[in-house]
Amino acid sequence: MKATLSLPALLLSALMLAATPAWAQLSRDEAAAAAQRATGGRVLQVEPAEQSGRRAWRVKVLTPRGEVRVILIDAEGGRPSR
């Protein structure tokens, strides 16, 4: 017996794919973890950003020295931007 998808199911699938941000190869949690590894601090906030035309995550971190730093994490490679 062959499984077939109905037209509404195909349209729903297409809409779900279109709604997914294509640039978000790195999740918000992965960006937070990368910033935490890079600074050794506590993550305060994570939001989408852009740097030099590339997608990134802007991560605000409280360092072990008590300083608040903003780290940009590349959304494709997961590395802190320089």
TrEMBL record:
It comes from the Bacteria. Keywords: Signal. Pfam families: PepSY. InterPro entries: PepSY (IPR025711). The keyword Signal applies. Residues 1-24 form the signal peptide. Residues 26-78 form the PepSY domain. This is Peptidase. It comes from Ramlibacter rhizophilus.
